[in-house]
Design goal:
- The complex is a heterodimer.
- In chain A, helix 2 runs antiparallel to helix 10 and helix 2 crosses helix 12.
- Chain A is α+β, with helices and mostly antiparallel strands.
- Chain A contains 15 helices and 12 strands.
- In chain A, the strands form 2 sheets. A 6-stranded mixed β-barrel of chain A has the order 3-4-9-6-8-7, surrounded by 4 helices. In chain A, strands 2-10 form a two-stranded antiparallel ribbon.
- In chain A, a hairpin with a 5-residue loop joins strand 7 and strand 8.
- Chain A has 2 domains: 198 residues, no CATH class; 180 residues, no CATH class.
- By secondary structure, chain B is α/β, with parallel strands linked by helices.
- Chain B is 38% helix and 25% strand.
- Chain B is built from 8 helices and 11 strands.
- In chain B, strands 7-8-9-4-10-11 form a 6-stranded mixed β-sheet, with helices on both faces. In chain B, strands 1, 2, 3, 5 and 6 form a 5-stranded antiparallel β-sheet that branches.
- The longest helix of chain B is centred in the C-terminal third of the chain and has 18 residues.
- The C terminus of chain B is likely disordered.
- Classes of the chains: A alpha+beta, B alpha/beta.
- At the A-B interface, helix 1, helix 11 and helix 15 of A face helix 2 and helix 3 of B.
- Bound molecules: adenosine-5'-triphosphate and magnesium ion.
- Adenosine-5'-triphosphate (ATP) binds next to strand 2 and helix 1 of chain B.
Chain lengths: 408, 237
């Protein structure tokens, strides 16, 4: 084994330049692919992050009817007792965030617009998503005052400013009419452009009163120590809720269309790296091909004097594997360094792009993903390529005719 | 018992297109300790016969035995294994693994045989010394002259303790001095260790030193002469 490795290793470095070029090409492919994906996934992570923080959470408890019929009729009772029980289900749960979410019409003197009302517990909400920091004008409401904070796009559309009055009209539980006048106490900027044009925040208690939904919520967001535990925690809560009218949904279940869209958006990047890998694979194969052909005679001798074909094939596999391994390790290393560099020195964005990113609640730098699976997925691809390419020399020595090999 | 015995070996190349009858009913037998040369004009079938004797190729018909094993019945995999443990090879050129040193080339065969690390290194050194390369053990093939490379090849062929050694024109690429030197070494091993050698050659100087000369013409054994003369001459010196 040691000798076979020695044979493989030295044979590899017999043509130093060729081997180095092949390894460099692999490094380039890995670095370029990781980088491309990092940028693509960076913006996706940003979108998903905002989506989960401001809208869905990573885990959410709803009445089982709510998804199809998001009406207050499908709200449910929430009290400290339920909260206590939920938190006991899994020690990775860090908090429970109650919300009332409903559609209402908002009017000023001239116009009427549809908006989404969020009844929230301000302090908990802020801890979860930094809501208070989104304020651009005025202030946030106290716990039970009849004040609302509008998203900037919405206030623009309605032409409302701080300390103006807004009329909200809608339906509470069981068809009770719900309407009232509220003071606009603040304007905030919602990070999701879509939501920025139609969001109204008010205290949870105020919303309950307005909507005749005393003690009720439409959704409970479950906070965890890490979103990696989403599925495990969901399973535990699911067990607990078994038999009740409540159910737990993960963020992937809550925003499947968005995820599909994002996945679709990645196709381009995947395609690019696949093309890159195909090009690199051909170069790699070219190296292995010449390396094999110029050594046919050597292989013939080795088999003639009694080296088992499989042993020789294994040695050649080792050679390809070593090139692949070096390419992957160095490639992942460089990619990591590169991303780490950009992590420390983010690429500053300017112009319109910068504004968009700022609007979404992020710093005006190119969003990049640092997810570790990007690295190992590239590593796996390069390995698969290496193993695939190794088939050729292995096949050659398995089939090699020693007589004709010695005559070449 | 004979070391090698063939029974009416025929070899036809390209049987389906333009058949070449490279060997016609060749039956020969080689005893332990012989120092046999295979001669004949170019194209007479020397290499083909050596390939059969070395179980590198299969005859179109006929049988060949090494010891009591009928090698013509073995599968490819069995023949490879059989060669490893029973036959030493010296080829005309490109004998050695280019990335291995002389010592590594010699010990590689023993490694394949499963010989232990210590024994294998000791034996490799001994063998290299016996072929006069004690001071070039760590040289790679490209750092050695053609004659030195062939001597390493002989050492390698001996390393596996084979029943016999086959050499196809081992001196063809060597100058006279190197050729005679290689022959000296082969002869010494033959005399001192009773190593059986079968080698093909064109070279008159080499032919002279063989005890037995088998001449092939057109794929058939034309003559088979054993001469005691040379050794008698040698003994008198
Ligand atoms: N692989 C092959 N395919 C077809 N014909 C072959 C093949 N190998 C050898 N021959 C033919 O078989 C005959 C014997 O060839 P062989 O190589 O055994 O001769 P040789 O005595 O070794 O010649 P030389 O002294 O030139 O080495 C020749 O006519 C040769 O052309
Ligand atoms: Mg020949």
């Amino acid at each position: 084994m040691k000798t076979l490795f020695k044979l493989a290793w030295r044979s590899l470095w017999r043509n130093k330049r060729r081997t180095l070029i092949t390894i460099s090409a692999l490094i380039f492919a890995v670095v370029a692919s990781v980088f491309m994906q990092s940028i693509n996934r960076g913006s996706h992570e940003m979108i998903v992050d905002n989506m989960t923080r401001f809208q869905t959470g990573y885990l959410q408890i709803q009445d089982y009817r709510f998804e199809n019929e998001p009406s207050l009729d499908n709200s449910f009772y929430f009290d400290p007792e339920l909260e206590e029980k939920l938190i006991q289900q899994d020690d990775r749960i860090t908090f429970v965030l109650p919300r009332i979410e409903t559609f209402m019409l908002a009017a000023d003197e001239q116009t009427t617009r549809g908006g989404v009302v969020f009844g929230v517990e301000l302090e908990r909400e802020h801890q979860f998503n930094g809501l208070k920091d989104r304020l651009v004008d005025g202030r946030f409401f106290d716990d039970s005052e009849r004040g609302v904070v509008l998203s900037q796009g919405f206030s623009d559309r309605l032409g409302l400013n701080v300390s103006d009055t807004i009329a909200l009209i809608g339906q509470g539980r069981f068809g009770m009419s719900a309407s009232g006048l509220f003071e606009v106490v603040g304007i905030m900027e919602h990070p999701l452009p879509d939501m920025n044009s139609r969001t109204i925040y008010m205290p949870l208690e105020t919303a309950r009163e307005l909507l005749s939904a005393d003690g009720k919520v439409t959704s409970l967001l479950i906070g965890m120590d890490s979103d990696r535990h989403t599925d495990a925690v969901a399973a535990n809560i699911g067990d607990f809720l078994e038999g009740s009218e409540l159910r737990v949904l993960t963020w992937t279940e809550l925003i499947p269309e968005l995820l599909e869209l994002l996945e679709f958006d990645l196709v381009g990047a995947y395609l690019m790296s696949y093309i890159l890998y195909i090009v690199i694979a051909f170069g790699f194969f070219g190296t292995i091909l010449t390396m094999t052909l110029e050594r046919i005679k050597e292989f013939g001798i080795l088999i003639s004097v009694g080296m088992a074909r499989l042993k020789l094939a294994f040695t050649l596999f080792l050679e390809v594997f070593i090139i692949g391994l070096l390419g992957v390790i160095a490639g992942v290393g460089f990619a990591w360094l590169l991303l780490y560099y950009f992590y420390l020195n983010p690429i500053e964005l300017t112009g319109e792009l910068a504004e968009t990113v700022i609007e979404m609640g992020w710093a005006p730098v190119l969003p990049m993903s640092f997810a570790p699976d990007q690295f190992y997925s590239q590593a796996i691809i390069v390995f698969l390529i290496a193993i695939f390419i190794a088939i050729y020399p292995m096949y050659r020595v398995i089939r090699l005719d020693v007589i004709s090999a010695s005559r070449t | 018992m004979a070391v090698i015995r063939t029974e009416k070996i025929c070899k036809v190349y390209n049987p389906d297109t333009i058949p070449v009858h490279a060997l016609k009913d060749v039956s020969i037998q080689v005893e332990k300790g012989e120092f046999t040369s295979l001669v004949g004009p170019s194209g007479s079938g020397k290499t083909t016969l050596l390939n059969m004797l070395g179980a590198l190729d299969m005859p179109s018909s006929g049988k060949s035995f090494i010891g009591d094993v009928e090698v013509t019945r073995l599968s490819d995999r069995e023949r490879i294994r059989f060669r490893l443990h029973n036959i030493g090879f010296v080829f005309q050129h490109y004998n050695l693994i280019p990335v291995f040193t002389a010592r590594e080339n010699v010990s590689f065969i023993m490694m394949l045989q499963g010989v232990g690390q210590r024994e294998l290194l000791e034996r490799a050194d001994e063998l290299l010394e016996s072929v006069g390369l004690g001071d070039r053990k760590d040289a790679r093939p490209h750092e050695l002259s053609g004659g030195q490379q062939q001597r390493v090849a002989v050492a390698r062929a001996l390393a596996s303790k084979p029943r016999f050694i086959l050499a196809d024109e081992p001196t063809a690429n060597l100058d006279t001095k190197a050729a005679m030197n290689l022959l000296d070494i082969m002869e010494k091993m033959n005399e001192e260790q009773e190593v059986t050698f079968i080698f093909s050659t064109h070279d008159q100087r080499v032919i002279k030193r063989a005890r037995r000369v088998v001449t092939l013409v057109d794929g058939a054994v034309h003559s088979d002469e054993t001469t005691a003369v040379d050794s008698a001459v040698k003994d008198n010196q």
